[in-house]
User: Fold this.
Amino acid sequence: MHSLKLAAAAAALLGQAAAFPPGLDFVSDLIQPNTDASLDFEAPYVRSYFYVGGGYVEDGSGGHIFRDQMYVEKLLPAFGVSQSTPIVLIHGQAQTGSNFLNKPDGGRGWASHFVEQGYEVYIVDQTLRGRSAWMPGYGASGPSTYSAEIIQQRFTAVKEYNIWPQAVNHTQWPGTGMMGDEVFDAFYSSNVQFVNNATYQQKTVRDAGALLLDKIGKPAVLVGHSQGGLMPIVIADARPELTKALVLLEPTGPPFQEAIFSNKSSRTYGLTDIPVAYSPEVVNPATDLIQQTYAAKGENFVQCVLQAEEPAPRQLTNLIDKPIILVTSEASYHAPYDHCTVEFLQQAGCSKAEHLELAKIGIHGNGHMFFMEKNSDQIQKVLRDWIQAL
Assistant:
């Protein structure tokens, strides 16, 4: 595969497929863009990486360290970019950008599909995570981890635990989803430590993400998953002019409180733990964002805590004109509450916010990690069509 990628890169640099010597015509044929989703080989690309954000701080012993930077991997289609909108992919808690490169069962990840479809793709490792080094003592005294049991319970074997009503519908994770299964072990071994400080995490990703959009230089589609699903919101708030749309893959929620595993208060700014622009301005969220609890829409759903109708709900100034799609799978722990997040966005003036419930369009059996499950290609195509229609 490395030789194919090098050959493709050479062709791209020369601006024509004819860069291949006559004796290598078969290589040129082999690496033409793949239109058969059943083939597992990667779309050819030109790869580079860089860092954004962060800065030097004193280390307390006379030296300096660099902290809060964010790793970015850039993939360009080897045969040229054909889509005008860049894609930024942001992973969730305990994960890295590798989530989007390959699936644990060896299949192609979403990054490969976007590249094949002609998109310029940027994959990040969130600040304080993976290749974006965390300096001990900043944001937390030590790193946190997820046990294998938590991964099984929430992501890969949810049907076995049956903690929320929709869990019984989970069928799309490849393998058993349990320790000792080859696919589960491949996925769990990719999990990393994380800094369990939502405020610090959101602030540093917002700052680095804004600089990433500055570097890209044109409006991009921000795609975020789970804990990383809030990052498109804070980045778009910081750079609305460089954000074309937001794709929220089961973002952390619901507004103002936890659900399913806890009911404690959280996210004092509604969707986020850090300030975002509201009109009228929110100075003190505890008093300015008046909360009201609304009845659950059915027995398998939670009550929504949103803004009260009186006084008039404050508006998310920098997001009101942005296309936003929130994607929810059939069997995830997000199924009982993601509608609350959509309703919060709509109430706050985001008239272009829509809720894509996969089961309602005939895509069944998925859990929280649906972008790496058996039918992930089908879901990616739905989102590709949504992005292309912008």
